[in-house]
Amino acid sequence: MGSQQWQWEESQWKSNNDQIVYHCRVRTNRDDLPWQATRIYDIPSDGHQALVRKTGLSPYRIYDWARVTEHRENNGYQDIYVSIERIWFNRSEWEWKKDSQYSNRKKQGYRSRFSDELTGSLLQKLRGNYLRLADLSTIAKENLAVAVDLPQHEIDAWCQIEKVERKPDHFIIHVSILNAWLKAPRRDDWEWVAESSPTGDNSLKYYTCKGRAVSSQLMIALNSPRSSRKQVSADGWRKLAEKTGLDVNEVERWGQDFSYTASPDGLKVRVGVPNVWICADLLQGGNLWNRGVVNWGGTFGQAISYLGTWGKKEIHCWDIKDLIDTLIKYKGRIWGMVLYAHGMPIGQISESSEDSFNQATLITCVKKQDFKLAKLYLMQCYSGYQGNVSILWNELDKFIETRKSKEPEKHKYMNRSEF
């Protein structure tokens, strides 16, 4: 065949919504064997180049996008018709927009026109609706990651292709992203905020924060059967301790009902903190002297003790038994306490009614909380008692004799061993 003049033009009457048909008329060299272009492979390279220039499509993909649909010989000429699906002319950029079709309480949908360069295998996946994230170009993933402000290198964890929608001249890619990812913090957030108790019992005060920056590793950890306290950083626990007044080194003891969850509202760390404030006023009641003068110390002291304890669950105790029972009942949930009572050098604490117990008993009950209270005020004489009575035997003997003289039947067998 001699040199041919390849001039491709669009055939308006053969083109439709799905494809564009190009026509070219070339002379057939009758000195050679009759030539017929039944396949794209039959067209010589200069014909290919002319078609590439006309369409602007990739010359390396011509065997994918071009197909000879018709050929006719007519008086030494051959009319060749090549069809190209309009999908191959997709020249738009990856522009991801919100998609209500795949959005609900749990996830947010996004959609974009497919804008990658097509290949035969890729087109087959698009038509078969089994496209994977790995099939998308870097620019497609990068634009989506920027649109939703999530790490591109973890797109396989936070993105899912929902559907490939076919249009006459393009495809629409529908994806979805869990709201747990979208609403999660992009950087560590340990700003604890108090919230109401889920049970209505104010003995524990609950604090929440958003926690660590979102990542696939964190999501895997949160989806495990038990979320670990280790997911909270040392800085996170330190800020909570500062906010509550408790010892950060004892957080494993006072931090209760811990949870770290991923939900449609994002990530949430929640922990219950002791919130009981005990105000034990053992100065109320007693004889005329106690009622008229001494117990004013408890009355005024209570008013002062309310400062700095707003929002706490306040428990009032009026006698020794009530105090001990309260310490036992709210074990592990006591934030602090204040005690107003009479005190003695030997460490004895007494009510206005003259019932008493040793300060060592109180200290033992407090120690059973397993952590240091945020505030502990013992507002009685000799409240600095350290449990050492070796040099106070004379005072102890006087105290025993006094008790025996006032209530001989009750304290008949009282001796030093009881202290």
Automatic annotation (TrEMBL):
Domain of life: Bacteria
Record's protein name: Uncharacterized protein
Organism for this UniProt entry: Victivallis vadensis
